[in-house]
Amino acid sequence: MTLRRHLTSWLFLSPLLVVLIPFFVLPFIVVLTASFFDSDGFGGLLPTFTLVNYANLFTSSLTLNLYLATLKFTVLTWFFSLILGFLVAYFLAFHVRNPLLGIGLFLLCTVPFWTSNIIRMISWIPLLGKEGLINMALLKLGLIHEPLEILLFSSVAVVIAYVHQLTIFMIVPIFNSMARIDKRVVEAALDAGASRLDIMRLIVIPMSKSGIALGSIFVVSIVMGDFFVVKVMSGGGSASVVGAFYEDISVLQYPSAAASAVVLTVALMVLIGLILRTVDIRREITR
Amino acid sequence: MATGQGHIELAGLCKSYDGVTMAVDGVNLKIEDGAYCCFLGPSGCGKTTILRMIAGHEDPSAGEILIGGENVVGMAPVERRTAMMFQSYALFPHLTVRDNIAFALRVRGLSKAERNKAADAMIEKVRLTEFADRLPAQLSGGQQQRVALARAAITQPRVLLLDEPLSALDEQLRVQMRQELLRMQRDLGITFIHVTHTQMEAIALADMVVVMDRGHIKQAGPAREVYATPRDRYVAEFLGGQNVLAAKVRTVAGGRAVVASPTVREIEVPLAGRSFSAGDAIEFAVRRDDIVLKRPGPDAVAPDTAALSSRVTGVEYQGSFVKVMLDALGREDFIAYVPERTFFRDPVAIGDVVLATWPVEHAHLLA
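Output (structure tokens, whole complex):
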């Protein structure tokens, strides 16, 4: 009887396990093992047990700077994509009365995803470049006298590209949790005399907490785990954690790259843990 | 005449959502201060729309809404001093019972101590003290309803609007909660407007029943008046308990008409002061509990009694009475409610031929 019950619970878990074990647990074990190996300098791994990769990582001042730089991009991207995503989701969930129009607008949000990431980034160049639309417009209006350099190949450009790319990851879960708010609940708040701000503060935001948390997890983990946008949009001017160990890989230093990867994974887990500690997603969703 | 602060007057009230069909079509109504008023009608008759317009959640397309003598169209719900209790309650799922009830005070800027004090007093009034810190999802339907009632009443509104307040409850609880609503209304001494599609609920609760159909008021008046003297066929059939007969006038004499139809052989109907001439079509209602069943025989029909000969098509035991279905009107229902003891003194069975009789004066002429 208990055996059968155990079996059923395992069966229920199996789809998740089938995905998690080969695609996360096993690769992670491989990387974890490699992080304790030594390198022969030519791409080979020497199966020893050494902590030297971690020691190098933690004693290098570069590591802290890389993390600070990545964290800066993460926080900025999270902040702007949260504001934008929340507003778009709010508009879709509460102001679009016609459900068909709502779905249409929702699909419109996904249009940027019809082209590849690279093209999307490159398309910022004619807009943000030295002779791009924005600079030209500002020059013509006489607001500036020489083109703004800061727009492209800078931290600004990195954040813009990230926000452009990732706002949809905020919109979807926030919209989803907002769509489940009974409109009569909002009406009841109105009936009780709540202002628009009160409704936002006391009803909409608390009830979209799970969506905000989920979106934040998406954005934070994607930005922390990315180097490509930073590389392209900063024009090589900014570095990132993943960018650094990508360099290690290109010079065949697999063990130190693996150690960096493990540290990043742990750092991310801590961050996500913090998010989950603020919002009990499981409780919010089952409510 | 001075109007009480909870006195409501609707004047030429119209609402159309699409500009073509009228959800509410020219409604005029006065509701006394402190009355318990029920809007009764099938879904889509406009009763909820009226309620929402009084509450300020919907703007009328035309017409005026006066509360306490003042036109409130265009005002926010708070300025109107109305409060609404929503269908299926719309409690704030992320707030505790106490915070739900204190919500209106919170947005009015009361301090936490003040609003909790007021909320706790209200919680005690609706007997939820031990549930004050629970979330709505952890309460039963009846408890949720009490939270909704308390949340609406905490601002001391002059009018409380209830949208199908009992429809989310099961039958037994519904009857119990009816009393609770009445008690609350007496306690607060304010006007209650209650929307329902259940006639039993309306006549059990209301000082004034407003029967609606397709955006119009069909009849408004005290429960007994609406039930016992319905104005037309629609009201009679919607409230139930009546047999509605249609016939043509043959002769008129002494304030009564002799009428007949293909299914009804000559019977007398009182004309209640109205004048008809031979050939006019009339409709009248006879209460199901006014009908006495008799076995056919030479002395069966007393003077001043109307009688229809018919066959029993069905018998349903209802406890305190027995519902006997007859074929007197052909395919239309004709039903007699026979008191239980009377029925079993001489029970009729399906297929028996009986005379359905009633005192002529008890027939009620419909418009």
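Chain B has a mean pLDDT of 89.
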